[in-house]
Amino acid sequence: MDTQQAIPKPPEPVTPGDQPPRLGRVPFVDNTAAMLRDPLGFYDRAGAHEADIVGYSVAGTTGCFVCHPDLVEQVLVTDADAYEKGRLLQDTLGQFIGEGLFLLEGEEWQRQRTALQPAFYRERIAAYGDTMTAFADRTAAGWSDGQRIDVLPHMQSLTLNILGKTLLDVDIETTADALEPLLDALRKRLDPRSLSAYLPLWVPTGTNRAVNRSLAEFQSTLDDVIAARQREDERAREARDDVLSLLLSLDDETMDRERLGHQLLTFLVAGHDTTALTLTYAWFLLANNPECQQRLHEELDATLGNSQPTPEDLFELPYLDAVLNEVLRLYPPAFTVFRQPTEPVTLGGYELSTE
């Protein structure tokens, strides 16, 4: 893990022909079967193709893989106004987080982003840092030297505890019965190896029933938390610095009950598995690169000594920053970004329609 080695500039995009080439002789059949059998292998096939824009058709959804960084930059940055997040994400997640930041677009996204900005002010981040440190200490205290553990469940538990405290200011054990089944059901619902990922939520598969049931339980638990918060006196509410308190302080037009639930679920879905996976891969890579592990220990010891870390300390830990960036480069937890043109566009010489 040489974080000093420069990454070579990729060659120019390869985009042969008048239309993007497609994977498989009969894309709908071949692509759907491949995605159900081995999603990562299917992505590898697209990435290994000689072309940098490759068409696919999975379970009735057609689109293109964009595999060159210059073309990705064109979609996400240069021509961003010509694209939106698209129907696929709305069809998959709209019922859960359609009013959350992740799926909102344009002016409404900007309005909600501005309203939520105080949740990320420096003083709030500092308070969240204390919470993160406390839960990290508690997690580490449960381990013994030489003990063999499955790290991922521990990291999922750690991130869920932190999210429960920073989002709702509750001991997660009081809401775990509602949160954990919902997150587990959503995880299965979004798994591309599952047929439920390609079916409407009203189709009564076991996974869809579990999602609907756990979503209702989560909403009921959230109603209880909100009701308890509203019974508090004004001084007690103002003393809290969790995200729920911020959302409850907004007017109904900005943050009605449905939107509030969608925003909280957005933070939960976006922050749970992604963070847990990043931490898990970090431990994996550090365990397999002892020289990097040693260098990181030396930086932490020199900067922190025996004191508890604070968010401000992160600016004094460049090697830690490099390690995490390398983890995200090698094992990005969210490795696919969806975009749909809002108008006919030209990408890599290809004319792409809004469909």
UniProtKB/TrEMBL annotation:
Region (Disordered): 1-23
UniProt cross-references to InterPro entries, sorted A to Z: Cyt_P450, Cyt_P450_E_grp-I, Cyt_P450_sf, Cytochrome_P450_Monoox
UniProt-listed Gene3D superfamilies: Cytochrome P450
Annotated keywords: Heme, Iron, Metal-binding, Monooxygenase, Oxidoreductase
Gene Ontology MF, one: heme binding
One Pfam family recorded for the sequence: p450
Coiled coil region boundaries: none
Transmembrane segment boundaries: none
Similarity remark: Belongs to the cytochrome P450 family.
Protein name (database record): Cytochrome P450
Organism: Haloarcula hispanica
